[in-house]
Amino acid sequence: MRWRTGRRSDNVEDYRGSGSGMSGGGYGGSGLSTGHRVVAGGGLGLLLLLVLGMVFGVDPRLTLGLGNLLGLTTPGEAASSMSGAPATVGVNPGGLSQGRQDELADFVSVVLADTEDTWKTIFADSGVRYQEPKLVLFSNYIQSACGLSEAAMGPFYCPADQKVYIDLSFYDELQNRFHAPGDFAQAYVVAHEIGHHVQNLLGISDQVSGAQRRAGKAQSNRLSVMLELQADCLAGVWAHHAQAARNILEQGDIEEGLNAAAQIGDDRMQRRSMGFAVPDSFTHGSAEQRVRWFREGLRTGDFQACNTFEAASL
Predict the structure, then answer these.
(1) Proportion of the chain above pLDDT 90, given as a percent
(2) How many whole angstroms separate alpha carbon 223 and alpha carbon 195?
(3) Cβ atoms of residues 294 and 257 within 8 Å
(4) Burial class (CB in 10 A: 0-12, 13-18, 19+), 279
(5) Within 10 Å of residue 190's Cβ, how many Cβ atoms?
(6) Is 33 part of any domain?
(7) How far is C-alpha 224 from the geometric centre of its chain's CA atoms?
(8) Do residues 170 and 154 lie in contact, with contact meaning Cβ atoms separated by under 8 Å?
(9) Segments forming the whole domain that contains residue 87
(10) How is residue 27 annotated by DSSP?
(11) Is residue 3 part of a domain?
């Protein structure tokens, strides 16, 4: 992946090596937050989503009904995690040298900047201003607006503060434990979390979270899978536009990204940890599903192609 000459983002907050990994007063003094925020409710909230749908060109079924699955709700309470349940990912904070950590910090800053440029253009083309998220680097654990989070969760996005969190040692796990090496595989991880930010800006995450609170366990899991697969597709949309605008891809990069998507599928993760897979418990999607939707976004570069909620099959 051609990244070294790329622009670095101004939206990286580096808390590596800060002892506890706590970010101090940046999140206020309220202690462990539930991640709640105040949003427009009732008719005003409905109108907001309608306007977003019309201006951004999003199918009204996606912003309002999602196939009669979702409704206007308050925001989600939990972070969206790349890797799934903590039990499936054991990050070794000491697995990377300081030099490698610094190189990866530089790398994710470039990838973040590229997602900013891409999504800013996509939003602007529809007359909407893209709100850039922050990316927080930390070691071991950190206090986010979604609560106290450990590196073992893997990279995650917190909608309550619009920040992506990553302990760079996850990349050591990605390469050595999950057999997904390569810089484009690493970029896919960041792009997936930025996909969750896009969902948050469009109100999709809020609707899914509300529907999950009203649903049974099986349906809640299925909604989670739909949300995660859409984020995979949005990661592909980023890669499509970044390649067209800046020619970032080298030979083998696409294969690296698709392999990473496959390796962190729920079925493969569960087989590694338990020896078997339980499809009803999936929250992120199978290897085949994650590859399919990442490939779809990469192929089309079209947000509309990422409507997992209305797809005939996942």
Answers:
(1) 69
(2) 16
(3) yes
(4) exposed
(5) 24
(6) no
(7) 12
(8) yes
(9) 12-27+39-310
(10) G
(11) no
Largest Cα span, the chain? 53
Band of pLDDT at residue 59, cut at 50, 70 and 90: very low
The residue that leads in pLDDT, 202 or 71, is 202
Q: Which residues contact 36 (CB under 8 A, 6 or more apart)?
A: 74, 75, 77, 160
| pLDDT in the model for residue 17 | 77
Tokens 């009669």 correspond to 68
Token pair, residue 148, equals 């106290």
Q: Partners of 166 in the beta sheet?
A: 137
* 56 lies in some domain: yes
When divided into structural domains, the chain yields a total of 1
User: How crowded is residue 114: how many other Cβ atoms within 10 Å of its Cβ?
Assistant: 25
For residue 247, pLDDT beyond 80: yes
**φ, ψ for residue 175, nearest 5 deg:** -80, -50
Q: Is 18 left (phi over 0), alpha (psi -120 to 50) or beta?
A: alpha
Of 198, 134, 120, the closest CA to residue 163 belongs to: 134
Is 177 among the domain residues? Answer: yes
Q: Which residue has the higher pLDDT, 153 or 105?
A: 105
